[in-house]
Design goal:
six-stranded mixed β-sheet, mainly alpha, two-stranded antiparallel sheet, globular
Length: about 800
């Protein structure tokens, strides 16, 4: 760019008090891009980057205009690059800047909590404005979304909706979707409870986003922060609605996780004090047998609420519960009209302007190829016009058709009128679903600075990998990176845990022996003895790790979640607090059990080595006695050390300081750093702990079992093996990032079910519009696309039918 944008961006960043790294976290733009923009050396001229930075800086309308004007002035000096579908958003109009969001504090809310609510409002606004821009809602203009009042049986009594006292006659509810926004409709409802119904793909989620942004952008700040929650992952049979909201706030906004003096968290206080307006998107995605309970729980919970659902599923839940959502009005989205299609699709087709000709991809006489198609839809007498008009009645199908025919040269939408090829509406919809992914992967994505992006991917590969991900989700809405690996069958995960742990312990044993032999800490051993010792230690201790993993999985204790804490070097403020004591006790017992199993495996490895070295059978009485004594001693040494080390580390944990809302890539990066620091702390602590605890155990049991051999050299070597091998095995098998590394970056790519750069592939799919971001997790563009990809994967991979992915 020119030298003008750099100084403006740098001045705004300094005024906001942000470093380049902090601005990168807030905006999801890489540090390298920001540095090159400020120095004038960037080759990235996308307006979306400028808008993301402006959102993160919280600039006003005038300053945003300065940034955008400097971007426009730089464009004539930029050579146009190759066209691609992912580059098109730069041609759309810039999003309308919203005023800085605020929250009108309720009278009983403390200033600190009001500040937390205002900060959350800013994060929600930035996230959904960026997501709305990414979904190309305003390109070339938003598709009209209209609604009408829902059926009377799907709403509560008008008097309850209007919160009228007994004896007062209710007045008419104005729920028509004329020129006013859905936020205006919501404000007219005294109960502050609204249900938005519609068919599949009718735009309910987009309307929920627009609702949240309209509230946050209103001149008068709302008293509550509208936060969109995906309802599909809620199980009302096991989790209360309050706990569900708090858990999702902690997942998507980790900075709300720190403990307050009261023992609560800002996330819990925001929910309990009524500062959150839940926008529950996708009620129909809740498991069928749980919707009745969910509806009753929402009615009991009370408070403001916006809920979106497909009409049929909501009506079934109302019938099963014998009552609609308490106090809620309901509206139903209507279909797009042929006039809407005629105004939108031709303007969304820019191929003629890009190609400079009137070939098959464009219409003739300067018209879009869509013009001749939409002209035949109103009459309904052209072959195939009626099924096509019916298929394009929802924004979902319009967006899929646009991706297939408005962004690819050589594709003529006139083929959609072929009645023999597409005799029914369902055939057309399947055609759009099947062709969307190949269409967006037909072209190479533009080069970006982010190193995690997937560089090359064919449409067939994308279909296979996306299909596997959809298959493993088993109907869930959230595509979380920490759940991809655990979706493998339990036997596979247990065997992989054995293999990984065995490699860690064997490698640690070999490394220690190779370093100890030249220093004289070990007596001279031949290469065969060194290899055998490492092999036996790795095999038996790895089996012990795998056994522990399997037992925990049977009781549902092997599930892993991303860490929300990091180690702090300062001393804890409350050493003997009740919560700290409970956490220490729980972690001590759990890790002592795991360490004891590891010690038993190590004792059996020594027994095998001794039997081979001395030529004694394992059934020898002396061998049995020594093995049993070693099992007890090593179980105590490894168990007590593990319990004390992990329990003590828990006292030094503090919430992660993430200033901006979590994204999948950001959460993965933070967890990688957290696990790395945890590993660096565990290795020396376990090494020293095993050596010192060994001396204490041997001293206590010396008289009971006779003379016990425990030399300083042996203690140091055993501690080093346990510290290196045990720490690494724990990190790789019992942490979310470790399972991601071993399963998603190694095992699944080896078997061809995922690419080697899985994180880059997910991010690339997000940029291409196949995936959406919802806080710290991804969603497929639509659950119907998700089901189509999963079905296609099972059809193409017969072995997948025998794989039972883990349920919700």
């Amino acid at each position: 760019m020119t030298d003008e944008l750099g100084p403006v961006l740098r001045r705004l960043r300094h005024r906001a008090g942000l470093t380049q790294e902090q601005l990168a976290e807030r905006s999801t733009v890489s540090v390298r891009t920001i540095r090159r923009l400020e120095t004038g050396r960037s080759a990235d001229h996308r307006l979306t980057t400028v808008n993301l930075l402006a959102d993160a800086l919280g600039v006003g309308a005038e300053e945003r205009r300065q940034l955008v004007d400097s971007w426009h002035r730089a464009q004539p000096a930029v050579a146009s690059g190759p066209e691609s579908p992912a580059a098109e958003p730069a041609t759309a109009a810039a999003p309308v800047p919203l005023p800085a969001p605020a929250v009108a504090p309720l009278p009983f809310v403390s200033p600190a909590l009001a500040a937390a609510a205002a900060s959350l409002a800013g994060e929600v606004r930035r996230r959904w404005q960026r997501e709305e821009w990414h979904r190309r809602v305003h390109d070339p203009f938003p598709l009209p979304v209209r609604w009408r009042p829902a059926a009377r049986e799907l709403m509560d009594h008008p008097a309850n909706i209007q919160r009228l006292p007994p004896g007062v006659a209710p007045h008419g509810l104005d729920l028509e979707g004329g020129p006013r926004s859905v936020a205006d409709t919501y404000r007219s409802i005294a109960s502050e409870r609204l249900v938005i119904l519609g068919r599949v793909g009718s735009g309910k989620s987009i309307l929920a986003i627009r609702f949240a942004l309209d509230l946050l952008g209103a001149p008068a700040p709302p008293p509550r922060v509208p936060v969109i929650f995906g309802a599909g992952s809620w199980d009302p049979a096991t989790t209360t609605f309050r706990d569900f909201l708090i858990d999702r706030l902690l997942r998507d906004h980790p900075h709300l996780a720190h403990r307050l003096p009261s023992g609560s968290t800002p996330a819990a206080d925001l929910v309990d004090d009524g500062l959150i307006l839940p926008v529950l998107d996708g009620f129909d995605e809740i498991a069928e047998g749980l919707r009745e309970g969910a509806l009753e729980a929402l009615s009991t919970a009370g408070g403001p609420l916006v809920l979106t659902s497909r009409r049929e599923e909501y009506a079934e839940a109302v019938d099963a519960a014998y009552a609609p959502l308490a106090g809620a009005a309901a509206i139903e989205l209507t279909d797009l009209t042929v006039e809407d299609l005629g105004a939108y699709l031709p303007r969304a087709d820019r191929r003629k302007a890009r190609q400079g000709d009137s070939g098959s991809g464009s219409g003739s006489g300067g018209e879009s190829a869509w013009s001749s198609v939409v002209e035949k839809l109103p009459a309904g007498d052209a072959p195939g016009s009626a099924p096509l008009a019916e298929a394009l009645r929802t924004p979902l199908m319009v967006s899929l058709a646009r991706a297939m025919y408005s962004r690819a040269p050589g594709r003529d939408p006139a083929e959609l009128l072929d009645a023999e090829r597409f005799p029914t509406t369902s055939r057309l919809e399947e055609h759009f679903l099947a062709g969307f992914v190949p269409a967006v992967y037909r072209h190479r994505a533009p080069e970006r600075d982010e190193p995690r992006r997937q560089r090359a991917c064919t449409p067939d590969q994308a279909m296979r990998w996306l299909g596997y991900l959809a298959h493993t989700m088993d109907g869930r809405q959230d595509l979380a990176w920490w759940r991809i690996g655990p979706a493998l069958p339990a036997v596979t995960r247990a065997l992989l845990a054995v293999l990984v742990s065995a490699l860690c312990m064997a490698s640690a044993t070999w490394l220690v022996q190779l370093l100890a032999l030249p220093s004289g800490l070990l007596e001279v051993m031949d290469l065969r003895s060194v290899l055998l010792q490492g092999l036996f230690v790795g095999l038996l201790t790895g089996t012990a790790f795998g056994l522990s993993h399997s037992v925990l999985a049977m009781f549902g204790r092997a599930a892993v979640l991303p860490s929300r804490v990091q180690l702090r070097l300062s001393a804890p403020h409350h050493w003997i607090g009740r919560q700290q004591l409970q956490a220490f006790t729980s972690r001590f017992g759990f890790m002592m059990l795991g360490g004891s199993v590891l010690g038993i495996g190590y004792a059996w490895a020594l027994a095998l080595l001794r039997a081979m070295h001395n030529g004694l059978p394992l059934s020898d009485a002396a061998m049995i006695k020594d093995t049993l004594v070693n099992m007890l001693i090593f179980a105590l040494i490894f168990g007590l050390t593990s319990g004390l080390v992990f329990g003590t580390l828990g006292l030094f944990e503090a919430p992660m300081d993430i200033a901006a809302a979590a994204t999948p890539s950001r959460l993965l990066s933070v967890n990688r750093a957290v696990v790395g620091r945890q590993l660096l702390a565990l290795i020396p602590l376990l090494t020293l702990g095993i050596a010192l605890c060994g001396y204490a155990v041997v001293a206590l049991l010396h008289g009971l079992f006779g003379p016990l051999l425990w030399t300083p050299q042996g203690a140091l070597l055993l501690g080093t093996v346990g510290g290196l091998g045990g720490s690494t095995a724990y990190v790789l098998t019992f942490t979310a990032w470790g399972q991601w590394l071993t399963l998603c970056r190694i095992w699944l790519p080896l078997t061809g079910r995922l690419p080697w750069n899985t994180a880059g592939f997910l991010e690339d799919a997000y940029h291409r519009g196949v995936l959406r971001q919802a806080g710290a997790v991804y969603h497929f563009r639509h659950n119907r696309l998700q089901r189509h990809l999963a079905h296609a994967y099972r059809r193409r991979s017969p072995g997948a039918r025998n794989e039972e992915p883990r349920g919700r």
